[in-house]
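Example (one chain per record):
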Amino acid sequence: MTAATHSSLFPRVPESADAVLDGLDPEQREVATALHGPVCVLAGAGTGKTRAITHRIAYGVRAGILPPASVLAVTFTNRAAGEMRGRLRQLGAGGVQARTFHSAALRQLQYFWPKVIGGELPRLLERKIQLVAESAARCRIRLDRNELRDVTSEIEWAKVTQTVPADYPAAVAKSLRDAPRDPAEISQIYGTYEQLKRDRAVIDFEDVLLLTVGILQDRHDIADQIRRQYQHFVVDEYQDVSPLQQRLLDLWLGDRESLCVVGDASQTIYSFTGATPDHLLNFRTRHPSATVVKLVRDYRSTPEVVHLANGLLSQARGRAAEHRLELISQRDPGPDPAYVEYADEPAEAEGTARRIRDLIADGVPAGEIAVLYRVNAQSEVYEQALTDAGVPYQLRGAERFFERQEVREAGVALRGAARAGGNDSLLEDAEDLPAQVRAVLSTKGWTTEPPAGSGAVRDRWESLAALVRLAEDFSRVRPEATLADLVAELDERAAAQHAPTVQGVTLASLHAAKGLEWDAVFLVGLTEGMMPITYAKTDEQVEEERRLLYVGVTRARVHLSLSWALSRSPGGRASRRPTRFLKGMRPGSAAPGAPGAAGAGGVERGSRRKRRGPVLCRVCGKTLTDAGEMKLMRCEDCPSDMDEALYERLREWRSDQAKQLGQPAYCVFTDKTLMAIAEAVPGDSHELSGISGVGGRKLERFGADVLAICAGQDPDVDVAEDADES
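Predicted structure:
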């Protein structure tokens, strides 16, 4: 019995209410059939919580117990709400509302505002940061770009915790929150910001919740009207609710208890936004008659990954830790987690890229691999390393799939071809649905082979390729389907924001990875000061960092790598230590009071570069830390003595080699490496090997050509033949 992680993309709608329950394990079935009274589902990572609650809603709807229009399911992201709508549609419960808190509140506010206040709802401020900047300027407080973002976040925190400007300094002191500026200054900026909004008749996203709460508190007739419409509530990720969201939920409910909440206190990682697990942990106190179900069968991860996840939480402290769930893997055994130590951050990035390239060669799709880090600033060195390795990647946080321009254009083209049918000359030679889609999308930029590079052109191709794969999956499940059927499916998915997967290794922060999963996960930069982050001072803050690592570990299905670097840059002092959270799990370490290590195997030593001093700019002498600058051996803005003619000859040669090999140009050498060669003009293999980006493999394959070009000669080596021989 397994959860539906890898089930068909297009399952058939169950024929009856009882059929909705097919395939659920005993605990999931208990959730699905608990349709009355308060219900609390404590669901560990990978235990099929979304499956359980969507089947609960669908079973209630199909059995005639829950009228679809009377159910409101709320969660925290548009992606999660879209996934829930998609699953409900597949289960035959498409009439149920599944929304975020903000989306549900905004619909109600837009409807009732003319009746309560009169006129149209004030314009919604999409981005508040510009108004916060103006407020700071009016207060004669100078903020740099980072401080501006932080102060904006503080205002958001104050509003979701229902703290007015005058009370902000006291609230910060009480919560032991580390304010980015003097709390009195932030209070002043906050107050000015609120006044500017009133003057300009605009509201922000937090106001949507605050105003809805205000209307429901003041107008009992409107509260009663909403309660008559929505009689059954389901709240996903309940550990992440803020005090303001809980207040809104209480007003929606009134004195009823027709509520089902789902959450895991061990995955509370957003306290900086005002989220608190207290509402989940206090649920049974507030609702003594609640049905409580624990989901601990982990269908996502192998026993080895689950063992590490459980070990992390076994050392946790605090109230959330007292309610931790001991997961039980339902999968076959897999490889042990890898613990890898590197000399420096560039070595860690390059080693990670090599391991990813090996996994892809072994058959793991790039889209099923993720590199997760603590802060977004860590992404750059991995972007460079993956580019150097010829591995496609995507940064988490891009615009939604169906909102991308190329996807909208593809939809228009497919819709036009479906209407034209046999009259469209593009479809004359297309034998089946996937062939028709490939023919249509070829006019929009899709090709059988991806373009070189990882920029906008590659992003566009990946989007179109995702549509092609979707058509192939759709055709396998429904061999009789037409192009019109596929267009209808795309329209429904767009409405539900149920997007297909774009292929490419995912680079994401640990926070952005919440709710996602991959076959292989690389957790990088796991050193003290980064995990836990250096500004985590209190016990509660440190424990949240532990939970953040737990979330990262539980994203992995099969392959898991945990790595750290002893220094930041090549030649730096090896003063860093791996995170304290791995004590007792990392081989060779032991938790306090533990007799030995809990992990299996040993710590691998990543490729260690030959020890050398700091990399210095050869123009100004400054120590270099940026990976790109270290390739050039100079600061980016220092004057270059590059031989422009040599650089152009190298670029032409690289283009020829890439064509012969059938690979993107950057797989031969990156632009930065070619610039470094053109600046250094190496005279022999030893000098060439000293240039960053020219490893032993590339030196052997391309070295003779490059040295010949640097010497003003014509290369005479056929790389394609060499590649075939090797």
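Caption: The two ends are 46 Å apart (CA to CA).
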